[in-house]
Amino acid sequence: GAVVSQHPSRVICKSGTSVKIECRSLDFQATTMFWYRQFPKQSLMLMATSNEGSKATYEQGVEKDKFLINHASLTLSTLTVTSAHPEDSSFYICSARLGGAKTTSTDTQYFGPGTRLTVL
Amino acid sequence: AQSVTQLGSHVSVSEGALVLLRCNYSSSVPPYLFWYVQYPNQGLQLLLKYTSAATLVKGINGFEAEFKKSETSFHLTKPSAHMSDAAEYFCAVSDPWGSNYKLTFGKGTLLTVNP
Q1: Which of A8, A68, B18, B81 is the most buried (most CB within 10 A)?
Q2: What's the mean per-residue pLDDT of chain B?
Q3: What pLDDT does A12 receive?
Q4: Cβ contact, residue pair B102, A34, below 8 Å
């Protein structure tokens, strides 16, 4: 149980185009999903918290107009990198929170397999 | 604010040897603590978590970790390393009393296993 998928796993695009990445919780409902960015040989950097039915909460320094997040249902969140540039090339990972309204001992984030974005 | 420090960005052991990956945390409240493993070009897989129950937590693949409040540590161990254990390991902390459910990650420790 607690499987999270991401699509696509790898995408190459030209500079200036927009890219959409999907994150799905396959066997549970997730009111909260998270989007991370990971540079080579580095830790995960939280970009934003995605809440179903409301606006995402972005971390300091993350451009919300560049990284559009939509959490339209309890099993799907999307990240759209708008007008992508080579510096946006990175490994993007989502996670989905399995838990209730209040944090409990079962509260755990389950991660997707990641999406490798390369902007030419 | 919470933080995690993983001592040693790279740990190398021989196959069959003890694995010890260190994690120290800083938190103003009793935390929840997690260890995740990441294989190349993949997402993170949960190894184990501490949520204020037993201080010795057993996880998957033979790993375990012990929560030591006095030392603010949550070190990950495995008695005998296997070649398949070679991966990046991340320690993470969350605030169980907060409302944002965020995880704060350490910088990771790359484990290599030599034959």
Answers
A1: B81
A2: 91
A3: 97
A4: yes
Note the pLDDT of residue A109.
Answer: 86
For the stretch A49-108, pLDDT in tens is 988 888 899 999 999 999 999 988 889 999 999 999 999 999 999 999 886 655 555 678
Helix, strand, or coil here: A26?
Answer: coil
Torsion angle in degrees (nearest 10) through CA of A74, A49, A25, B101: -100
The average confidence (pLDDT) of chain A is: 90
Q: Which residues of B touch A48 (CB under 8 A)?
A: none
Shortest CA distance to A115 belongs to which of A97, A98, A90?
A90
Cβ contacts below 8 Å, chain A against chain B, sum to 62
Give the per-residue pLDDT at A13: 95
Looking at chain B from residue 44 to 63, which residues have their Cβ under 8 Å from any Cβ of chain A? 44-46, 49, 51-53
Distances (CA, A) of B95 to B4, B19, B27, B99: 12, 27, 8, 8
CA angle in degrees (0–180, nearest 5) for B43-B57-B79: 85
* Cβ pair B43:A116 closer than 8 A: no
**Interface touch B105/A110, C-beta < 8 Å:** no
